Amino acid sequence: QVQVVESGGGLVQAGGSLRLSCAASGRTFSIYTMGWFRQAPGKEREFVTTIRWTGGSTYYTDSVKGRYFISKDNAKNTVYLQMNSLKPEDTAVYYCNVGTSTGAVWGQGTQVTVSS
Question: What are the backbone dihedrals phi and psi of residue 88, each rounded to the nearest 5 degrees, phi first?
Answer without folding.
Answer: -55, -35
